[in-house]
Amino acid sequence: MKFFVLLSALGLCWAQYSPNTQQGRTSMVHLFEWRWVDIAKECERYLAPNGFGGVQISPPNENIVVNNPSRPWWERYQPISYKICTRSGNEDEFRDMVTRCNNVGVRIYVDAVINHMCGEGGGAGTSSTCGSYFNAGNREFPAVPYSGWDFNDGKCRTSSGGIENYNDAYQVRDCRLTGLLDLALEKDYVRTQIANYMNHLIDIGVAGFRLDASKHMWPGDIKAVLDKLHNLNTKWFPGGSRPFIFQEVIDLGGEAITSSEYFGNGRVTEFKYGAKLGTVIRRWNGEKMAYLKNWGEGWGFMPSDRALVFVDNHDNQRGHGAGGASILTFWDARLYKMAVGFMLAHPYGFTRVMSSYRWPRNFVNGQDVNDWIGPPNNNGVIKEVTINPDTTCGNDWVCEHRWRQIRNMVAFRNVVDGQPFQNWWDNGSNQVAFGRGNKGFIVFNNDDWSLSTTLQTGLPGGTYCDVISGDKINGDCTGIKVYVSNDGKAQFSISNSAEDPFIAIHADSKL
Ligand code: QV4
Ligand code: CA
């Protein structure tokens, strides 16, 4: 403990790269649009028992109410104030969620929308989730308070006031992203309002923040805000703990702004990860799983200890943001499970699992015209996350994190944490395998023919339960069993028409 305090006292605050999870918990899940009462229950009944490290929640601050279209999910990315008051719940419910999740060792990461307020066309009145008055035209947000002085209008040099050219770093930071009123983060007053909001959340017990639209803020302005943040609440965290920071920066290359500009503040989302993995698993453009041998920095991604990685996110699972058609989502379930399984088995980055809701997609000329549709609701009130007898979710919540293959790979990642990537094998096509030290091993068959081969797993001899096809329950396996001989070798057969054409075994699945 003393050493830890010394480190942060010395300003070696590497800590903002650490997710502050409990020892041995190595992933977070994004419970997109869930209510606080449901997250609290999920922490206790599911996430803690299954080794999830934390939850990314939807923005908890008051947002504009959009009625045309009717209550889109993206209204939550248009702040009206920093009151903890949204369709997900009020401050009491928020406090209860943070306390109950922390008490079972599951952290809360807040989606902080601090680059802007609502859209310039947001109008005036009290159409907001907590009834606060605002006037977008005059840039008045009295519930913060912000006034016209607190926005970048005078600083933006484009005629429209909006971002017109992503190759001009000044525009990208100082002008409006899709018409969203751009806050003047160079002003100490604005930095202080934002820091007060974030410190309120830190004092309640959150472990860190997703910084929305980080590309649209100067790295130095972000740092000025972070320098104002409290250490985490010592009720649940060691003294001197710094909030975990992961900045949303979409950098697929070719723009003026790069992810590395933000490394000094914390981790950064690596959007190349999901875009490339989707292309490989879909076998597009001649991509093959055999090419994943040097996955990670070898593919031009940022350093692993700066990366926040995911297969899909709330934007690109519905065509917003970046990643394009290659992005795999729950709609592509069989390939999606393989991609998430590969991500969770591979040592690169800190991993985030997406948990979505179903909506009625309607493609017109290749574009889903229903991409705006918000969470399952009854006349605008978000529906409860009901749990079915088979442990899946009801009410159109997809709950990917509860799919056996994904839930068990979250545990796999915990078991192999710190173990080296080794024993790679491939058939030169789409059959690959690799291990993590002597703790875990995974085999994929994404070819159009069966896999049957003997591989060096690196594991001690014994009988292992395949955690993709089943579960180890009461010392037995409800799925495929794998026999590892004392020399670490095992025979694997995977049909290309298997429900899930991959097998994963690890130290805790040994019978
Ligand atoms: C429209 C016009 C504007 C006009 C404006 C007038 O497009 O030209 O000036 O009206 O008010 C919604 C609407 C959008 C509308 C805007 C403002 O979709 O049509 O502008 O509101 O009224 C989400 C959605 C956006 C949504 C936004 C705010 O994706 O569609 O805009 O929320 O409600 C870039 C960024 C990256 C960003 C990504 C989507 O670099 O940071 O685009 N990703 C994050 C979030 C994302 C969110 C935002 C940023 C904004 O992940 O969910 O955008 O907070 O790549
Ligand atoms: Ca900005």
Automatic annotation (TrEMBL):
Show where the Glycosyl hydrolase family 13 catalytic domain sits.
26-413
Q: Which domain of life is it from?
A: Eukaryota
Q: Which GO terms describe its biological process?
A: carbohydrate metabolic process
The cofactors named for this UniProt entry are: chloride; Ca(2+)
Which InterPro entries does the record match to this protein? Answer: A-amylase/branching_C (IPR006048), A-amylase_C (IPR031319), Alpha_amylase (IPR006046), GH (IPR017853), GH13_cat_dom (IPR006047), Glyco_hydro_b (IPR013780)
Where would I find the Alpha-amylase C-terminal domain in this sequence? 422-510
List, alphabetically, the Pfam families matched.
Alpha-amylase, Alpha-amylase_C
Q: What family does the database annotate?
A: Belongs to the glycosyl hydrolase 13 family.
* Protein name in UniProt: Alpha-amylase
What organism does the record attribute this protein to?
Ictidomys tridecemlineatus
